[in-house]
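PT: before anyone asks, these are the final sequences, not the draft ones from last week. 226 residues across everything. Please model them as a single complex and drop the result in this thread when it's through.
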Amino acid sequence: MIYSSELIKGTLKTIVLKLLSDNKKMYGYEITQTVKEMTLDKIQITEGALYPTLHALEEEGLVTTETEYIGKRMRKYYSLSPTGKTRVKEKVKELASFMDTMTFLLDIKPKIA
Amino acid sequence: MIYSSELIKGTLKTIVLKLLSDNKKMYGYEITQTVKEMTLDKIQITEGALYPTLHALEEEGLVTTETEYIGKRMRKYYSLSPTGKTRVKEKVKELASFMDTMTFLLDIKPKIA
DNA sequence: TACAATGCATTGGTTTCTTATGTATCTTTG
DNA sequence: CAAAGATACATAAGAAACCAATGCATTGTA
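LR: through. Structure below.
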């Protein structure tokens, strides 16, 4: 089962920031594969979604980049900036809190009519 | 604290369907107020988001409507159709499963480098 | 040598939400 | 009783975020 794409909306930035905070530096393709593996294929980040997100995070100053070459093939590594390190904690907290709220909402019992 | 709007994305339909499955029939304004109260103001569904969603659910055949008048003021009640009753269970399950996966992703420990 | 995998990226389109606006009625308060 | 706020519907223009498709190039594998 693959989650319908609408669910991913709004969580992608947080996922990326969290991965970067746990792994120091990662490149785009690595991020897609890591998420795919960790979620047993349930979350598949497409490149068309990932790269714009990474570029946006860079513009916001939350990540920095460095380019390496493996043979002739380019690799662009992304790392958290100091601002990014602060932000990731906030984002993860907010998402965790949101999920608590949603869990509550989904478990509600009928009103007494 | 109000959750950043991007988090709501993708969950609105599920929230609405779930509320309808617990309350038999509800009208738009009631839905916004119920969500606001239940989440202690943390989730505020705007009318500009809700009404298009309700209309879409109706077009998809997941909800049916009936109009009532309280004095001269209109109320449009929404109820789950049989299809809707089936769908809401799937949607809630999927969202619950997605949140499990996200919880796991957010708790991951650093890789051994 | 062809195909799959790795790795970057962009473009066009759709969905979904936000902000703003519009109309109208009912209730509360100074 | 007038004004303000709450109730109740709805749409329209625009932005944000994602998807599908595509493109280019290199490396590994059958």
